[in-house]
DNA sequence: CATCGCTATGAAGTCGTTTTGCTTCTTCCA
DNA sequence: TGGAAGAAGCAAAACGACTTCATAGCGATG
């Protein structure tokens, strides 16, 4: 995670100009309408064609003419009207992003990565959360017609049929963590590999009775993790147990309580995400169960809180920003017809912390925990 | 915080179709070009004008004609081209969102709130992070010309002059947590009130030697909090001390170490944000200083991790999603000329937890901690 | 000097939609 | 049955930028 300016909340109560008037174009004596290419042409005494050529640099324009045009444009502070431009060019220079109703880090990280990449390639991001309602996705996608040149869609919970029906023809699409649909390129977190690594880690540190708290059925990630866990345990010749969860903190706590209540021997819990793992941790603490001495706990995602709970949480980290960036890179490549880009999901990393017996790292400015894998 | 579907990472390694070919319009035998209004008119044997009227429902169209048009439109699955539409209507039905390079909750929450509101009013969100470089803001704003009908800008670190210079004329603007500029409406977190409340809370629980760890100078939030703290302490007739921080975890830890080293009496630390408070907490723990018995610690923001550290962190919560929603509501109101909307920042809440002597709440499904203010 | 060829420029058409006059078709009433 | 009022529908003109085609300028060449 690169260093960033953390956002802090704003200044004092300052509802300046909360009267209705001064908002909008009625703002003082400013120039009201924006200058058009025609205005620039008139100001520079040339035709609109020359202005267009001079400013977009496509064809030859005499030096003196170009200078005159540029000065006129600057004077009027002319900026091409994007709508007209996209109509004329049949390119919007924007890509549509359709995301589920995400919370926290996942959302901001994926959008950050997408924005970084899109911006570097001169594209804009048009956002649309598909709130709980999946049918809403279709609408969201529809309203983007003519506004975007491509679509990046993440829909881990949607049924493939529904999504397939609402995908536009004639528009490049990249799917992220979504069931496969037609021949659209897909970028998915490597759940299988990640889950295998974590299961191996638990086994390697001596755990044998490992329970997986799964996410909701139908969610592509939850399903992949559940299956990956079962496969890894089978490969190790160990009996596997799975409890259904819901990806929420309380679901994890509930699962932990059930686990303790039914009395079966358990020496490790691997939750399908960090929120459930944290719920687990708190439930164990309330019950006086020592983590990691009696039971190890592992999560998935490496949400920020994972570092701060006690014991700190062992988990799998995925570079979500990079995932978003790669999806956009691929999309832009398809739109502009550029050379194919490296198209592969970033590899997850195992982050060993106290909850599975790792040592808590001293919090340092660098926070370079990635290499940590030291047993106490 | 409403219940949501938490996002989980994606399926297994599934880079289907990672060959270059099948992406984009060359996708199989699908209809290549999108249907235009002209196609619909031809299919329904009417003029384009009638199609436009029928579909937008503006003027009288005979029932039979309308039905024929609607069927034709459905058959061709026609969706109006947004670019052309915005050119003709001189309205883009989109608002531009310019944000600093935020991390985590803040970003996702504010965008979530904005998206909710924008979507409800038929608007799209065009996103642009202004990465570290503030000059980049000007560019970002410029490239949105003709693409959006209004701008929501958050720039807590920028100098007013710079921002003022890059604001477009002829476009409504709402500022969020940003220095005042001209007569543009501003929505800011009520730092002053929030800081006063927290300072009072510390004083009320018996603390007298309170130190504030401030954020970086020039940041509008950091400055407001620092001043608010000083004012509140002065009002209480107590000596106040401020240490400079940077809004980062390590800055908080560093400040805490300095505090312990110089040996002055301190019984409470109020950090300008949660990250620094958490850094503090860890530094105190390393040094064997008991929190809250010897020193109370308070933060600001209520980031998710605040609930999970031990001791859990007392902090101020601000409804960021609501802040975003209100900004957009105001903006849309200005664009459409609708009646003025309620335009006021949401009020911050004091969340008392263990780090200032509150009792840790049992983690419950409801997590209704807002009312909690019970001393042990 | 006429011609060729090249560059720089302009006029006009295009993109897809909305909207404004204007024409045509109904329908109703005297 | 004639006329008028009103509803429906059409052709054409925006909207702003890009682009093709045609043309003017102009030096070089035969």
* Pair with the biggest interface: A-B, 138 and 139 residues
Question: Structural class, judged by helices and strands of chain A?
Answer: alpha/beta
User: What's the gyration radius of chain A in Å?
Assistant: 27 Å
User: Poorly predicted ranges of chain A (pLDDT <50, ≥5 residues)?
Assistant: 1-32, 360-376
Topology (SSEs and partners):
Two copies of one chain form a homodimer.
Chain A: H1 37-43, H2 48-56, H3 63-75, H4 82-89, E1 94-100, H5 104-120, E2 124-130, H6 135-142, E3 150-154, H7 160-166, E4 173-176, E5 186-187, H8 191-204, E6 210-214, H9 220-235, E7 241-244, H10 249-261, E8 268-271, H11 274-287, E9 296-298, E10 315-317, H12 320-336, E11 349-351
Parallel strand pairs in A: 1-2, 1-3, 3-4, 4-5, 6-7, 6-8, 8-9
Antiparallel strand pairs in A: 10-11
Helix pairs in contact in A: 1-2, 2-3, 5-12, 6-7, 8-9, 10-11
Chain A binds a DNA duplex (30 and 30 nucleotides) through α2 and α4.
Care to describe what's here?
2 copies of one chain form a homodimer. Chain A starts with 36 loop residues before the first helix and ends in a 25-residue tail after the last strand. Chain A has helices at 37-43, 48-56, 63-75, 82-89, 104-120, 135-142, 160-166, 191-204, 220-235, 249-261, 274-287, 320-336; strands at residues 94-100, 124-130, 150-154, 173-176, 186-187, 210-214, 241-244, 268-271, 296-298, 315-317, 349-351. Chain A has 376 residues and is of the alpha/beta class. In chain A, strand 8 (268-271), helix 11 and strand 9 form a beta-alpha-beta unit. Chain A is elongated. Residues 1-32 and 360-376 of chain A have low confidence and may be disordered. In chain A, strands 2-1-3-4-5 form a 5-stranded parallel sheet, sandwiched between helices. A 4-stranded parallel sheet of chain A has the order 7-6-8-9. Chain A has a two-stranded antiparallel sheet with strand order 10-11. In chain A, helix 6 (135-142) runs parallel beside helix 7 (160-166) and helix 8 crosses helix 9. Helix content of chain A is 38%, strand content 12%. The interface between A and B is large, with 138 and 139 residues. Strand 2 (124-130) of chain A pairs antiparallel with strand 2 (124-130) of chain B. The first copy, chain A, binds a DNA duplex (30 and 30 nucleotides) through residues 36-38, 46-53, 56, 58-62, 65, 80-81, 83-90, 146.
